[in-house]
Amino acid sequence: MGHGGGGTLSAELMREVFAPAYGNAVLAGLGDSAALSLGSARLAFSTDSYVVRPLFFPGGGIGDLAVNGTVNDLAMSGARPAHLSCAFILEEGVPLATVRRVAQSIGAAAAAAGVTVVTGDTKVVEAGHGDGVYLNTSGIGLIPEGVDIRPQRATPGDVVIVSGPIGMHGIAIMSVRDGLEFGSEVVSDTAPLGGLVEAMLAVTADLHVLRDPTRGGLAASLNEIATASGTGVALTDSAVPVPEAVAAACGFLGLDPLYVANEGRLVAFVPREHADAVLEAMRAHPHGAHAAVIGECVADHPGMVVARTGLGGTRVVDLPLGEQLPRIC
Fold first, then answer.
1. Are 127 and 68 contacting, i.e. CB atoms less than 8 angstroms apart?
2. C-alpha distance across the termini of the chain, in Å
3. pLDDT at res. 11
4. pTM of the model
5. What local confidence, expressed as pLDDT, does residue 31 receive?
6. HSE, side-chain direction, 13 A CA sphere, residue 15
7. Residues facing residue 138 across a β-bridge
8. Mean pLDDT in runs of 10 for the chain (329 residues)?
9. Boundaries of each PurM-like C-terminal domain copy (predicted)?
């Protein structure tokens, strides 16, 4: 299970199994989506599979999660998402009403994100060999001219901005999966981020890095960026927006919010001279209303993420080994 968690074991699987098997320059970029040239066009292409349990949770379900997840991966390259594929893997015996509900949520989420589902596939496996419904979605989008967003572009002096409060999706899943109550309902943040990225690019095309911190949370995304760029990242713990209910749940469960998955947030590395204007544009968009500066990219401690604590000390924020919360997407 740890190899699917977006942490050290996932990176090991990529490095030792998949990269040698498929090795090519595009794959080596290790972005949320692949940036490809096709004739005169620059395309972003991404694929993802969804095995979340339960299928429906506060704030969403597997259908809108699949659409938003793929749309967001495309947007993290600066692309304008355009078209999706969707494949269903169904377990024998799953009620058709459940399949219909998932399909309808996919259609509604695609319409909200401004994309179309143009092709797909369906397979059925025997009872006991699945978990109701698994999904795979792939997507393509156009990257505007002059946009070059990738983890290798993080540069010392960049300002690190997160688009809103973190940890909500993972805790929402845990609350319904294990019947836990944390004083108030935690609702998943699942949302399409293409419009937010367009608002940021309207300020400047020179955004260095965008990532949506899903599996492994914000900590995993920042570590991946630090490693890819050979720079360090310095956070301020108190600047990271964590909802009170998420903080309480993490305290109860022994989790660090930095490692909890998100499905409607992005982290951006922005040149300092553009940071104020980009932050203002983010806060003017519904999906960035609570955006906050949480740190900076530094030349010190290359490849490492360090957080300044409220007591005046520092702590290393490592890449997680495996998965704190399995089956959250």
1. no
2. 13
3. 77
4. 0.93
5. 75
6. 8
7. 47, 85
8. 74 84 81 87 95 94 98 97 98 97 98 98 95 97 96 97 97 85 83 98 98 94 96 97 93 91 97 98 98 98 94 88 75
9. 156-301
Interior CA angle at 127 toward 122 and 131, to 5°? 70
User: Computed over its alpha carbons, how large is the radius of gyration of the chain?
Assistant: 19
Q: Where are the alpha helices (DSSP H) in the chain?
A: 8-13, 19-22, 25-28, 62-75, 96-113, 168-177, 194-203, 217-229, 244-253, 272-283
What is the rounded CA–CA span in Å between residue 64 and residue 180? 23
Q: State the pLDDT at residue 283.
A: 98
Round to whole Å and give the CA distance between 270 and 267.
10
Q: Which among 87, 81, 101 has a CA at the least distance from the CA of 32?
A: 81
pLDDT at 48: 95
**pLDDT at res. 310:** 82
CB 162 within 8 A of CB 233: no
The answer to whether the Cα torsion of 205, 210, 212, 218 is positive or negative is negative
Amino acid code (one letter) for 122:
T
pLDDT at residue 180, as a whole number: 73
Q: Which domains does the chain have, with CATH numbers?
A: 31-142 (3.30.1330.10), 151-316 (3.90.650.10)
> Letter for the amino acid at 72?
N
For residues 295 and 157, give the distance between their C-alpha atoms in angstroms, rounded to a whole number.
10
DSSP string, 158-202: PEEEE-S--SHHHHHHHHHHTT---SS---------HHHHHHHHH
Distance CA 76, CA 204 (A): 15
